[in-house]
Amino acid sequence: MSSEVLLEVKNLNVYYRVYEGLMHVLDDVSFSLVEGERLGLVGETGCGKTTTFRALLRVLDSNASSKGDILYKGCNVNKMSQTELLNTRRTEMSMIFQDPTSSLNPVFTVGEQISSVIRANLQAKRINYSENDVKDIALKALSDVLLPDPERIFDAYPFQLSGGMRQRICIAMSVATDRKLLLADEPGTSLDVTIQAQILGLLNNLVKTTGMSVILATHSLGVVRETTDRVCIMYGGEIVEIGPTRSLFANPSHPYTRALLACVPKLTGEGIAEGIPGEMVSYLNPPKGCRFQPRCSFCNEDCNRTKPKLTLYEDDHYVACHKADL
After folding, report:
1. pTM attached to this predicted model
2. Smallest Cα–Cα separation from 48: which of 15, 25, 67, 29?
3. Which of 61, 124, 133, 255 has the least C-beta neighbours within 10 A?
4. Which of 112, 156, 155 has the alpha carbon at shortest distance from 134?
């Protein structure tokens, strides 16, 4: 793995204007990613994982606004011109969206959609190509994601395929051309466990062979443990703990991280996890201090008054908690 920093996010905040008021969804999110690194982004549904990805690509909804710095290869994504941004998306970054149904256009064939992505990449890189070259690349990508009979899939429409097949097509579109950064938002959605394991193996192989960096957003702690180098634990739009995967799993320090790990079912069948009590924080009216404090059994007055900052806990392991030494 290279030590060259590919992506650095500094104090990223995202707000959504809704009928009830202003939702503060991401609150000073900061992290970095080096070339060839696999970073896991873990948290409950609604914690801000997808919003983080959309902010990195600058594809937030029209009712959203953001502030903060997103430095990709030293260039601030939030300050790029539209031309620079489009070129970066076409040649450098790619994203696997969580919902395959809304990611594919139902009136165009799979081949037309994946070919348009490949053409845009080749044109942006000023590489000469023929339509046969484009089709060969598309068929290889469809084959790489374990779709049976790629020729038939190439000519099919999305509505003719199952949810799992559509998800694999979205993955194929993301990995068909060389990219430096892949944002994978729940890539195992709609896939059975066998195919999911093979797809994750494909992503790991791409990291090894091409040096591509991956940020993987998922609910599955098991997947993160097996496929990432570092992990960010996210709660209520904040990074509450970040560190090397082995260190974080061996010594979870934030109460939320411990609660997540306690929810993982045990193979020994030692009872059923009760889950984390309470509800996700309200983004319309978040607590002044720690956003996890309404659900935390270790909460004290400091947690109510002051937002904890990410602080070095041990080697490259950071925790945002006033009581992290418990």
Report:
1. 0.91
2. 25
3. 61
4. 112
| Phi-psi region at 126: left, alpha or beta (left = phi > 0; alpha = psi -120 to 50) | left
Q: Which domains does the chain have, with CATH numbers?
A: 5-228 (3.40.50.300)
How does pLDDT run across 24-38, given as a tens digit for each residue?
A: 999 999 999 999 999
Contact 184, 160 (CB under 8 A): no
Q: Is 151 helix (H, G, I), strand (E, B) or coil?
A: helix
Residues 6+ apart with CB under 8 A from 290: 296, 299, 303, 304, 307, 308, 320, 321, 322
Of the candidates 230, 288, 313, the residue with the CA atom closest to the CA atom of residue 42: 230
Please name the residues in contact with 274: beta carbons below 8 A apart, sequence gap of 6 or more.
Answer: none
31 three-state secondary structure: strand
Q: In degrees rounded to 5, what are phi and psi of residue 157?
A: -95, 150
